[in-house]
Amino acid sequence: MSLRTRRNRRLIAALLLATTVPLTGTAAATTSTGGIDLGTATTHRVLEAAPAVKVRGDVAHPRSFTLARLRSLPQHTVRVRYQSSRGTEKHTFTGPLLGDVLALTKPRLDAETKNDQLRFFVAATGSDGYRAIVSLSELDPAFSGKKVLLAVSQDGASLDAEGPRLVVPGDVKGGRYVSGVVHLHVGDVDALVDRG
């Protein structure tokens, strides 16, 4: 993500925060989940300002997930270490498991097909167009069982301004750590690969 894009997102988040004043006059406080509590008399407009994550493709129930909805799911915390262009990075991420998010959309797996989840993938796309793929089998405890997250906080700081981040523990390089996820596409590789 370019420096200009990050600055623009921070500016938008700051403007939204400035225009979201609690009717009761209470100050904003950080909650234990890293979100912003603007008082009981106001809505969480800051949380809703980031684009919702759309889940589409081979799912029975396509839907969108706001940051508030992602925070309402069971939260998991992972500590990761990976290589990036800046060298070795170590971070702590918190958010729902990607598998839990996808379970709410019901990927179209065929119970009659042996190990059907091996044929499916999830393509995560960031707001800047960056994209990476995770296999459904990586999320399945019967196979890899990775605790892949759609993180809503990093190192204790919320990701409200940039949106959720795909986190793939165990990867040596951080290439699949997609920032600002706006779209998840569940796909079946059989639709793409020639069987002949």
How many structurally independent domains? 1
Q: Quick one: CATH superfamily?
A: Oxidoreductase, molybdopterin-binding domain
Q: What does the main sheet amount to?
A: 5 strands, mixed
CATH architecture: Alpha-Beta Complex
Radius of gyration: 18 Å
Beta percentage is 25-35%
Q: How many beta-strand segments? A: 13
CATH topology: Sulfite Oxidase, Chain A, domain 2
Q: Element order, helices and strands?
A: HEEHEEHEEHEEHEEEEE
> Quaternary arrangement of the chains shown?
single chain
As residue ranges, the low-confidence spans are: 3-8, 10-48
Helix content: 10-25%
Strand order of the main beta sheet, please? Answer: 4-3-13-7-8
What is the typical, i.e. mean, pLDDT?
Answer: 80
Would you state the CATH class? Alpha Beta
User: Number of helical runs?
Assistant: 5
Overall geometry: globular
Overall structural class, as computed from helix and strand content, comes to: alpha+beta
Distance between the termini: 40 Å
InterPro entries: OxRdtase_Mopterin-bd_dom, OxRdtase_Mopterin-bd_sf
Protein name: Molybdopterin-binding oxidoreductase
Keywords: Signal
Organism: Streptosporangium oxazolinicum
Which short descriptors sum up this protein?
196 residues; globular; OxRdtase_Mopterin-bd_dom; 4-stranded antiparallel beta sheet; alpha+beta; signal
In summary, what is this structure?
With 196 residues, the chain is α+β, with helices and mostly antiparallel strands. Helix content is 19%, strand content 31%. This is Molybdopterin-binding oxidoreductase.
